Amino acid sequence: MTATAPPAGATAPTAGTAPAPPGTWWLGLLGRSLLVDRRALTAATALAVLVVATVAVSLAVGTAAVPLTRTLPAVVGAGEPRDVLLVQQLRLPRVAAGLAVGAALGVAGVLLQTLARNRLATPDTVGLNDGAAAFAVASVVAVPMSLAPSASALVGSATAAALAVGLAGGAGRRGYRFLVVGLGVGAALGAVTQLVLARAPIDEANRAFPWTIGSLNSRAPTAVAVLAVGLAVALPVAVVLGRQLRLLRLADAVVLGLGQRVGRIRLGVIATAVVAAGLSVATAGPLGLVALLAPEIARKAAGPRVVPVVGAALASALVVLLADLVGRTVAAPVELPAGIVTAVLGGPYLLWLLLTTRTRRMP
Q1: What average pLDDT does the structure give for the chain?
Q2: Domains of the chain with bracketed CATH
Q3: In this prediction, what percent of the chain has a pLDDT beyond 90?
Q4: Which has the closest alpha carbon to 71: 81, 59, 58?
Q5: Is the C-alpha dihedral spanning 345, 348, 353, 354 positive or negative?
């Protein structure tokens, strides 16, 4: 979904007074008119419906099932005590964490892929997740405070981004170099994580281990709340950046001639991806390959004319919720972490991308 505003100094057209380009709609909002891509809006609506349905199923299904007719009352604390315990206390917190973590990973993934013009450029592959995980694990071992992982993960994600961009000499037209350097940075930071865990006392290592595998089980409410606040800021910024990223498909001189600051756009994209990826890892650990799968789903659904930021957030939330649902039901009563499920699902797709001839650049 995309929305465009008139140039500075121009009068915004009123919805319905000027014909919209093919495949778009004029929508009136707060006295202004927004040009919305019809296919992207339809795709986002369909994904939203699927997310709502998956939330309902996730709240109802488990080792002890709750009928759908009793799920909604249990969410607000009404109904049988057993249903309230299962839905409100056990399942609702992990569903909320899955929605927030998935949306954040989708936003970070679609922004980085579009900036680097490479489908392989995601928080997993350019080192953001590894940096966030390394600093979060170090904070858990050294500073036993609930807010420490979130703050440390942001620092780690920003450190990884700065190293990757600095060593690659940029992240725009040098997208493939940015990806290769990011892989090296991620490998180095992953080794730091293993070193910290190996040197830590066994009790502290066990306490930090969940930040290395990716799971929605027993997530800290404080971390989820911090992620929700960060996402509330990052998502609108990402929507604006997504519109501007469409211009970066042109030469830098052309973009500058249109009045856009290329460096500021790229810096804004990287900063937004750092916040989204860092806070998501601080909440649930690194959920591998989600940011690779979800943007591609959204891109196929929305079409090539837009950067589907909202669609990617919804698709990623859907993938994370489905992975968590599969992980806690397919081998019940044994629970598989969602990170393992996403790796199993995303691994074949990653191999397919690596084996095709169109993985280096995006259209």
Answers
A1: 83
A2: 38-125+213-355 (1.10.3470.10)
A3: 37
A4: 59
A5: positive
